[in-house]
């Protein structure tokens, strides 16, 4: 087994090198932006003769995509593009991503693989509650489900009561949506007196936003399912860049299509194996919008050891958050998902929270708004103690009645920066 895996990794590295060389040549010849970047660094495609040479190549950032909006980074003529998507872009202009027919086929193949990793078969009925439209979640899952031969219910996000009625009527066995929406569905089912545990639902595939292990437990308990984590981003493909296998000890990055690296987000230097840092991805099979060393801003680390599932693809740890979502509270770096982990250990709380940043003098103060059925001063003190014990920061707790905080149908908004809101 060990030998076999080593052989497969050698084979994988060969596939990666071929794909890398081809991609570098493709962008050099077809994308003026890359030609200019390479020329400035004095590199030509011939300089790439091993995977280690990847480090010589320039990074691509979201800024670069914005500067070349909408079609400046395409490596094929527009007539070869069959589909466009766009990433939401909460700040500034959205970015547009484009796919050739072959890219759509590759993506569907990756999503079929995701579904198989999560134990989904052609006999399953997949209720796809990711948003359909410019967001990649809905159509990404849709095409993968059809390629697998499962039955897909293209309900999209929202319409929560209808989701629950259909789930009962059709007997959906798989739910795909953001983890925050899965919790909202469970809550509304409760109001409708529908016992989700009695339904045939057995698997959920959740992603598009950070979610803690505690949130997984909560979802698995409330919906009586096994919950898998899926990762992806529009620029690189959409969902289907990485996903958990049955072992659920990290997400396998599909290395036959993407080469991962971990860098120090401040210096841009590649970090030693196992270090935590920013995930950088290079696409090696894409035609329409190939990207060299794309800086995802997502913080994780790679797990180099072999996985018990037998797959050769390297794993990454669950994404804690994005470097641009990281809060710095009195010098301590905190991701919203770390606060979520603490909140979800406290039985009296509902799994709905909002972090509010306030400037007090020159220092940032963090308020944690969280829902609870029982409002008591003692509880606030306890939560704040637990957060201090785990994260070493003092926060102000604001307990609010159930159903006060806004529910999400897609990606949840977890942080409100009052300093920015006031500008
Ligand atoms: O969210 C693609 C997707 C759809 C992934 C459905 C999974 C399921 P974007 O809208 O471009 O694409 O957002 C990408 O979302 O850089 C991460 O910051 C975050 N993200 C995606 N999946 C996860 C995850 C889709 N499993 C951005 N855990 C990424 C944590 C995630 N963050």
TrEMBL record:
Q: What class of enzyme is it?
A: ligase
Where is each AMP-dependent synthetase/ligase domain found?
76-281
Residue ranges annotated for the AMP-dependent ligase C-terminal domain, each copy included? 331-418
Describe the reaction catalysed, as an equation: 2-phenylacetate + ATP + CoA = phenylacetyl-CoA + AMP + diphosphate
The cross-references to Gene3D superfamilies, in alphabetical order and at most eight, read: 3.30.300.30, N-terminal domain of ligase-like
Q: Which UniProt keywords apply?
A: Ligase, Nucleotide-binding
Q: What family does the database annotate?
A: Belongs to the phenylacetyl-CoA ligase family.
Official protein name in the record:
Phenylacetate-coenzyme A ligase
Q: Which organism is it from?
A: Koleobacter methoxysyntrophicus
The organism that produces this protein has a lineage beginning with:
Bacteria, Bacillati, Bacillota, Clostridia, Koleobacterales
